[in-house]
Specification:
Layout (H helix, E strand, L loop, with lengths): L12 E11 L5 H4 L3 E11 L16 H13 L6 H12 L5 E10 L9 E8 L3
Antiparallel strand pairs: 1-2, 2-3, 3-4
Helix pairs in contact: 2-3
Length: about 130
């Protein structure tokens, strides 16, 4: 990610790694006609104020809410591009005011038999 507003020693990051969902995604006709497997990973860096969550559940970034939002976006209808899916996920992540930065990876798994995946990585920082 770009230069973080949170010093590395004080950084708190929440991850959702390799969530695989069926999704209607892609611009080609064959992609519009069937669901395909998509792998999503998210890294969320907390704001400086939230970088020391300790054992206080009210201070943590809730990954369950992030996973729920990703699933809702995947079920909401056809998405043309991995980039668009990633942008929508990023927007959902910033609904939590504790999120300072988001790195979202969206990969289509079954496009090419000789490639593990193709997709996009989107990095966003909360506007100041």
């Amino acid at each position: 990610m770009a230069e973080s507003p949170v010093p590395a020693a004080d950084r708190y990051t929440v991850v959702v790694r390799n969530l695989v969902l069926l999704c209607s995604i892609g611009v080609r006709r064959v992609e519009r006609d069937r669901l395909q497997r998509v792998r999503i990973s998210v890294e969320l860096t907390a704001t400086p104020e939230a970088s020391h969550p300790h054992e206080d559940r009210r201070r943590v970034i809730n990954y369950e809410k992030i996973v729920t939002a990703i699933r809702q976006i995947a079920r909401s209808g056809h998405i043309d591009l991995c980039e668009g899916f990633a942008e929508r996920i990023s927007t959902a992540c910033f609904a939590d005011p504790r999120v300072a930065q988001a790195r979202v990876t969206v990969e289509k798994i079954d496009i090419y038999p000789d490639a593990e995946a193709v997709g996009a990585i989107l990095e966003r920082t909360r506007p100041v």
